Amino acid sequence: MIGEARVNPAKVAEVDALVSRLKEAPVVGIADVRGIPAVQFQAIRRRLRGKADIRVAKNTLIRLALERVAAERKGLADLASALAGQIAVVTTTLNPFKLFKELEGTKTPAPARGGEAAPTDIWVRAGDTPFKPGPVVGDLQKAGIPAAIERGKVVIKKDKLLVKQGDPIPREVAQVLARLEIFPLIVGLDLRSAYEDGRVYGRDVLAIDEGKVRQDVMHAIRHAVNLAVFAEYPTKFTIPMLLSSAYRKALALAVHAEIPTKDSVKVLLSKAYAQALALAARAPEAFDEEARKRLSAGPAPPPAEKKEEPKKEEKEASEEDAAAGLGSLFG
What we know:
Elements: H1 9-24, E1 27-32, H2 38-48, E2 52-56, H3 59-69, E3 87-92, H4 96-104, E4 108-110, E5 122-124, E6 127-128, H5 136-142, E7 147-150, E8 153-156, E9 160-163, H6 171-179, E10 185-187, E11 190-196, E12 199-202, H7 203-206, H8 210-230, H9 239-256, H10 264-282, H11 289-296, H12 312-329
Antiparallel strand pairs: 1-3, 1-11, 2-3, 4-10, 5-9, 6-8, 7-8, 11-12
Helix pairs in contact: 1-3, 9-10
């Protein structure tokens, strides 16, 4: 009919497919796919197969799908704030933090084509190049690289900053960087936000420094153990420390109270010997000649333990056992 809006069946089918994914997937992510070459994008799909599904669609269609599912899944519509540029919907059973780590693993260096913003300062370093003398020298110099021919080789005379971070990469510079096999761009899926159980996690939350987290956890464990030991709170980790501390305190108390035990008697004898030496030095007339000699010679070594001779019956029994063992070896 005249005046009726025509609806593209392909777009309707696309929205329906997105709605189905958004309803079923425990975790939904919005990822930036800008600048990923087709070959690399297919490789990323293969790598994530079985872990996550990726569906690229127009932002308007993704927004419609989010609105349709918003009533059933509280908070899911908040993902719409991440819809800008070239976007893909990622659905998975992985939690948002594992998904972020998986997508970060898809990133690889890529050559610049020209016009992209430099992610970091782009340098070329002084040294030999793989090029033979020829027009390439002019191309390098045109891109701002101090190149020359030396000993039949094309060399870069000194380090040169070609593009500062954030500045666009000129096309002629991009071409030279590709020839030098310098790939300044990092290309891969960039997870902007992820939804799970009614909550949306932004990139600033998902980007966890695992090394720092591990250090913080170890720091917390050490402090918790120290607190438990100080408070004498028995746990699986603190019981050995508490027993060791109790033993040291008991030994110190036994020595201080001069209570002889299996462990304290050695300390008590050493202490008594030291006191006797000190007394002999201050009042030598209080000791006879024999006592002074014995003190000056030091404490006597402990008597050696006598080894008991094995009984004849035991020795004979052991020989019989050995004979039986040899017999079993030779049948």
